[in-house]
Structures are given as structure tokens and as C-alpha cells.
From TrEMBL:
InterPro entries in alphabetical order: CBS_dom, CBS_dom_sf, CBSX3_CBS_dom, Diverse_CBS-Domain
Keywords, sorted A to Z: CBS domain
UniProt domain CBS: residue ranges: 8-66, 76-133
Superkingdom assignment: Bacteria
Organism encoding this protein: Marinicauda salina
Name of the featured protein: Inosine-5-monophosphate dehydrogenase
PROSITE patterns per the UniProt record, alphabetical: CBS (PS51371)
């Protein structure tokens, strides 16, 4: 299992937002789409950052409600955590753990291919564990 397969299974639609959008608009989009992070791009160009729920909480804790009118660019994470499509799920787990992030931006030759979340990884690992258990049970029953 790799990043490309995860994106293929879940769909490659990636919501992006402009750096000039305000935090209130970003929060509304996160809620409406049921996602925890959005990739920040200028005119659908290469990613320049990621804005997450964590970034929103930090902005509100630092500046209070007035932060909601500030631009995403002022609060996004600029240090993108990226992976290639052929990155294994085990490597993605390690990167997420080491970098303490819940979203990894997947780039294919510099272009945005998708986003893999910790939820995507956990879902696939649970499915894999269940399949392994089922296979082991079938093996034991026939032995």
C-alpha cells in the first residue's frame, strides 16, 4: 500500500484555498467539507502551505476572535510535509509521527496529487489487519 493507492481509493479531489482567504472562510470550508486541513495555493499553482485545524486553534489562542479576519498566509504551515506517490504507508506513518503532522501532501513531479491524512492511514492499516486475521483464521481452520 502506498500514497498513490490511498489517493486512488479515497479519490483525488483536493480542496485548495488562496493565501489571501481569511481564517473564517477557511474554517467554514473545513467544516463544510468535513476535512482537517486544506492545501494553500496561488491560482492552483504549486502548494505554498497547509492550513489545518491546529493552525486555526493557534491563531485564535494568540489573537482571539479578531484572527478570523486575518489571511490564511499569516497562519498556515509553510514547512510542507510532502511525499511521492510511491511512498509506502509505513513510511507515511513514520513521517507523520516524526514530524508530528496529521496530513501529508502528495506531489507527483511537483504537482499536487492529493493529501493523505492520519485517518486514511489508520483506515488502511485496520483493513490490512482485519484481512490478515481473516486469512490466518482460514488457514488455521483448514490445517
Amino acid at each position: 500500500m502506498n500514497a498513490a493507492r490511498i489517493i486512488q481509493d479515497k479519490g483525488s479531489d483536493v480542496f485548495t484555498i488562496r493565501p489571501s482567504a481569511n481564517l473564517l472562510d477557511a474554517a467554514a470550508e473545513l467544516k463544510a467539507r468535513g476535512i482537517g486541513a486544506v492545501v494553500v495555493t496561488e491560482d492552483h499553482g504549486p502548494p505554498v502551505g497547509v492550513f489545518s485545524e491546529r493552525d486555526l486553534v493557534c491563531a485564535l489562542a494568540d489573537a482571539g476572535p479578531s484572527a478570523l479576519s486575518e489571511p490564511v498566509a499569516d497562519h498556515m504551515s509553510r514547512d510542507l510535509v510532502t511525499a511521492a506517490p510511491d511512498t509506502t504507508i509505513e513510511t507515511l506513518m513514520g513521517v507523520m509521527t516524526d514530524r508530528r503532522v496529521r496530513h501529508v501532501v502528495v506531489l507527483n513531479s511537483g504537482s499536487l496529487a492529493g493529501v493523505v491524512s492520519i485517518g486514511d492511514v489508520v483506515k488502511r492499516k485496520i483493513a490490512q489487519a482485519e484481512a490478515d486475521a481473516k486469512a490466518m483464521k482460514a488457514y488455521i481452520e483448514t490445517a
